[in-house]
Structure formats: structure tokens, C-alpha cells
Write a structure and sequence with these properties.
Blueprint (H helix, E strand, L loop, with lengths): L11 E4 L3 E5 L4 E5 L4 E5 L1 H10 L4 H8 L4 H13 L3 E4 L1 H4 L17 E6 L2 H17 L4 E6 L5 H10 L7 E7 L6 H10 L3 E7 L5 E6 L3 E5 L22 H9 L7 E4 L5 E2 L16 H4 L3 H5 L42 E2 L4 E2 L9 H6 L11
Parallel strand pairs: 6-7, 6-12, 7-8, 8-9, 9-11
Antiparallel strand pairs: 1-5, 2-3, 3-4, 10-11, 12-13, 14-15
The structure holds iron/sulfur cluster.
Length: about 375
């Protein structure tokens, strides 16, 4: 609780411009998009914050009355102690206008996934795809290999992105004891565009930072067997950084400006989706972007998705259009989300009786706890 008495203050409480509030059905989220953090707050506090734009603290105490004095104090101390806002007089606060919520990006494609099932037969496709992603100014590439890649195969992929626009490469590969930590370290030191290497299906859980704040090797016992592994919605995947928050206000938070190549070389929005827009060995990626079906899905933002539209996490959450609760409804809630914004409770999505029909339709009955 506040150590200073603000009851008679003629100052205003000013929420930092980088902080945003998302009102949900039962509670709300205050997001600091600069620090990438967020906290849950009661919906009443959202109204209080709206009022605080109009009135000094002294007036706020008067409006809410003596019965609510402790609540007002607790709201003020929460904002100040968690650094979501600061105190300022009328003149100073006018120097801190709100940030406009908007999202723009010059790249035609910002992020891409390439799945690897058999390296040798599809290796030419990787080079072709990476070269075209460069033309589209793609910045981030994720390579997800369901098989073990050798040191030379990993080097081949890292070399392919060297002189391209791709700035961040994340690689998932299956554990193999030939791929020693020493070899992985060397790979990361020689290829600084690789941000992470994740070794899945390992017998241990470990983490090694190779270049401070730049690249890390993770070992995980979790498996990555095929594209059905994708689409999991969990708190650990929430992202409150400004660019993601802004993008999610206008676009799909998983698929916007994404282009994927599945393990068979098929061009898709996401490797888990069934619709193919041609095979990468003989289809130009630029031509795929002229297909309205391919780009329409980019605009299915959470405000259009059933249930998600009432959820306080909707602009920090990821999305999934590959596995939804009602498979023939593109606007249905992601199947692999166990959160209920009407009760504010998390539960195991696989156990939900209402999801069993969709689970069986997608053949996810035996799906285990996996990486995504
Ligand atoms: S209900 Fe929707 S927005 Fe909320 S956590 Fe689940 S998937 Fe995300």
C-alpha cells in the first residue's frame, strides 16, 4: 500500500503511453508494451483509470467516497508500485500524449516456417525458398526438423541465409548424440543470425547461452513429431511486446504475413493447415501472395474470433486457425486453448468434453504434450 497520503493531491495519475488496457468479460489486462509485461486487473479499475484522465486524485477520492477510500488507495498504489503510471500536474501530463495504436510493416512476408521431414530430397527447395523469402524481405525464419539434422546439414541451412534479409533463424532438430554441444557452439559462433537451436526429443532439459542475449541452445525432452504438434495456447507463449500487441489489434497474431513450407514442400499459411497453394519446387512464392484466399486469413484478428473476442489476453495471445473448436468455422476459438474468459479459469483442453468431436476429427486423440 502507498506510504504517502495522496488523498489531497492536486496531481493526476498518468498511465505511461506504452501501457495499454484490454477489457475482458470478467477482468482486464494492463500491458506494458515497452517492458513486455502485463498484470490482471479488475474491470472496475479500468473505469477508475478512465476517470483518472479527467480528474485530479483529490477529486477521484471525492467521487468514489469514503466507503471506497481503501480501494482507490489500492488502485493508486498498484499503478505506481508496478510503474504503469506516474504522478504529474496538469501542465506536465499534457506533454505525454497517448500512442496511436497502429501497425505497419514494409515487408510482404515478415516470418516463415520451413518444416523438414526428409532433408536430402527437399534440400534444393530450401535454397529456392530462402532466396525468394529474401526478395519478400522476410526477417524471421523458423526451421522445424522432425528428424535429426547433421552438423553439415545445419551449416548448409545457416549458410543459405547468410547474405539475405533474414535476420533471425530459429532451428528445431531432433536429438542425436553426434551433434555435440561443441559442434553446436561452433555453428552458433560462425552464424550469428541463428538466435536459437532447440534440440527436441532429448533425454535432458538444459539451456546454454552461447552469445550473451543473442543465441541459446536448448535441450528439451518434449517431442516434435509432425505438424499436429502446433497450435498450443498457453500463458508462456503470450507476447506483450509493442510490435506484437499492435499487430494483434489488426491482424491474426500467428498467420499475418507468414508463409510456410510443409515437410513435403507444399506452400501453406501454416504447415498444419490442409490447403496448399502449390509446391515450392515449381511455384513462385510471389504469385502465392496474389491469391486472396492466402492473404484473407491474415486479417482474422482475435476480435473476430468467437470467445477470444471477450478474452482479456486477446492482444498478447497467439492464435491458431489450423485446429479450432468447430472445424468448419474459421472464426471458432483455437482448439488447443484451455482458458475460459467467462470463468477466468484454465483447464486441460484435451479433457474438455465439448472439444472431443473436433479432437477426433483432427485425429489428435493421441497427441502428447509437445513443444508448441
Ligand atoms: S480464449 Fe482466445 S484469446 Fe483467450 S487465451 Fe484462449 S485463445 Fe487466447
Amino acid at each position: 500500500m502507498l506510504s504517502i497520503n495522496l488523498q489531497h493531491s492536486d496531481k493526476f495519475i498518468v498511465i505511461f503511453a506504452s501501457c495499454f488496457i484490454t477489457k475482458g468479460h470478467g477482468r482486464s489486462l494492463i500491458i506494458d508494451s515497452q517492458r513486455g509485461k502485463f498484470d490482471l486487473i479488475p474491470n472496475d479499475m479500468v473505469d477508475f483509470i478512465q476517470n483518472s484522465k479527467l480528474y485530479t486524485i483529490r477529486t477521484l477520492f471525492k467521487i468514489y467516497g469514503t466507503d471506497n477510500k481503501e480501494i482507490v488507495e489500492s488502485y493508486l498504489s498498484f499503478i505506481l508500485e508496478n510503474e504503469y503510471g506516474f504522478l504529474a500536474n496538469d501542465k506536465i501530463r499534457k506533454k505525454f500524449p497517448e500512442i496511436e495504436v497502429k501497425w505497419q510493416h514494409p515487408s510482404k512476408i515478415t516470418n516463415s516456417i520451413i518444416d523438414v521431414k526428409v532433408f536430402e530430397t527437399t534440400q534444393e527447395i530450401y535454397l529456392q525458398t530462402i532466396s525468394q523469402l529474401d526478395t519478400l524481405q522476410c526477417e524471421a525464419l523458423q526451421i522445424r526438423s522432425y528428424i535429426s539434422l547433421s552438423e553439415s546439414q545445419l551449416t548448409y541451412l545457416a549458410e543459405a541465409i547468410k547474405n539475405t534479409c533474414i535476420e533471425h533463424l530459429e532451428i528445431y532438430t531432433k536429438y542425436n548424440d553426434q551433434l555435440t554441444l561443441k559442434k553446436l557452439n561452433k555453428l552458433l559462433l560462425n552464424n550469428q543470425k541463428i538466435s536459437n537451436i532447440i534440440i527436441h526429443s532429448a533425454s535432458k532439459e538444459d539451456e546454454y547461452e552461447v552469445i550473451k542475449n543473442l543465441s541459446t541452445i536448448y535441450y528439451t525432452a518434449q517431442t516434435l513429431t509432425d505438424e499436429t504438434c502446433c497450435g498450443l495456447v498457453e500463458k508462456q507463449y503470450f507476447n506483450a511486446i509493442k510490435d506484437h500487441y499492435m499487430e494483434a489489434n489488426f491482424h491474426n497474431s500467428c498467420l499475418n504475413r507468414k508463409l510456410s513450407i510443409d515437410g513435403n514442400g507444399e506452400i501453406k499459411n501454416c504447415p498444419s493447415m490442409s490447403k496448399s497453394y502449390g509446391n515450392a519446387k515449381d511455384t513462385n512464392l510471389v504469385s502465392v501472395l496474389t491469391n486472396e484466399d492466402f492473404t484473407a486469413i491474415w486479417n482474422i484478428k482475435k476480435d473476430f474470433v468467437l470467445t477470444c473476442q471477450d478474452c482479456e489476453f486477446r492482444y498478447v495471445c497467439t492464435d491458431c486457425r489450423a485446429y479450432v473448436e468447430t472445424p468448419d468455422n474459421l472464426y471458432a476459438k483455437p482448439l488447443k486453448c484451455g482458458y475460459d474468459p467467462y470463468t477466468n479459469e484454465w483447464s486441460d483442453w484435451k479433457e474438455n468434453p465439448l472439444k472431443q468431436k473436433a479432437i477426433s476429427e483432427y485425429q489428435l486423440t493421441n497427441v502428447k504434450r509437445t513443444l508448441f
